[in-house]
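WP5 quarterly update. Target: HAGHL protein. Source organism: Anseranas semipalmata. Length: 250 aa.
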Amino acid sequence: PFQLLEIVRKEDVVLRAVLTTHHHWDHARGNEELARLCPGLRVYGADERIGALTHKVFPNEELTFGAIRVRCLFTPCHTSGHMCYFMWEDGSPDAPALFSGDTLFVGGCGKFFEGTAEQMYANLTQVLGALPKETKVFCGHECTVRNLKFALKVEPENEVVKKKLAWAKQRDDEDLPTVPSTLQEEFLYNPFLRVTEEALQKFTGKTEPVEVLRALRTEKDNFKKPKERPHPQAVLAFDWGLFGPFLEKK
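Structure tokens (predicted):
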């Protein structure tokens, strides 16, 4: 919360409301402190488990904050009360934005903690997948490299995956974000949005889209990214005991 309030101060704006996608601590743990520090703060969400919740939202409900319009998109699966937020401004040349929490990631989707493959398939195809293709996707975590390594395992011949992975690795090395992507891009490299493609069906051994998605999620849950080979000079340094003084217990 303190990082957020520092950004609020730098931008010279007033924090009036918080939109929370779901109740997990890594998405909602700052709500109580924000509410304490900002009296009158409105906290929106669809799950009673969300900390400091003041306004419960419902599927397809629309909110307005100044010129910003928000449509609440109900995407149960990762949690039973997960809500995504689609935002736009009428007459603005900027692309709309989707805050997708842990439902849709760059190159991936969230784990099915409290839901089913059927629910996630509906989320990705009927709810989020039906949004304008230019929509910018702001997801809840920077796990793009790991997601794309899995996507490359699934589709080793997909040139778009290879290019996106190389780009994401470079961004990581430079400590720069890979978020946002666009919905149009996601359909080119995100395996969870490509369940009707022949390569995905071949990889999973399934043809029915929901079953492809179910099998993909199981594979991803068990996926271990390839270990990076240790730097040869670092190995030599260990062999020679050069790190000894740093490793001794106090």
